[in-house]
Amino acid sequence: MKSNKKFRTAIFYKDYFEKFFIKQSKKVKAKIIWTIQLIEESERVPETYLKHIESTQGLYEIRIKLGKDIFRIFCFFDYEQLIILTNGFQKKTQKTPKKEIDRALKIMEEYKNEKE
Q1: 104: closest CA among 84, 78, 82, 79?
Q2: Tens place of pLDDT for every residue, the chain, 116 residues?
């Protein structure tokens, strides 16, 4: 039986993620919610679902696949266990677009500046 113990908590920062989320189909929304719950409730999250973005300091991508469609949601940790969800997008190419990474890094910077 699956326990509902949470190892981390996902929160949305401002409305960046929400703007992306509300545009998705019911199936995609369900898969996003399922993936976020898996990340919250798994002690060790497989890289299939959560991966560090190379050459960044602390930026991760939540990886969602539904059929042939691939989605990415950027996030970062605060106090080791809080996941702050930033922007999301549908992936159309093998490589994650630099402009999406740059946008996520800007949001992360904004969050950290507001916290100080």
Answers
A1: 84
A2: 556 789 999 999 999 999 999 999 999 999 999 999 999 999 999 999 999 999 999 999 999 999 999 999 999 999 878 899 999 999 988 888 999 999 999 999 999 999 88
Q: Are 66 and 104 in contact (CB under 8 A)?
A: no
**Alpha-helical segments (H) within 1-116:** 16-22, 26-41, 98-115
Residue 65 phi/psi, 5-degree rounding, is -130, 130
Q: What is the reported pTM? A: 0.90
Give 54's DSSP letter: T
Q: Where are the alpha helices (DSSP H) in 23-97?
A: 26-41
Residue 25's nearest CA partner among 83, 75, 76, 64 is 64
Q: Is residue 11 within 8 Å of 85, Cβ to Cβ? A: yes
Give the C-alpha separation, 32 to 36, whole Å. Answer: 6
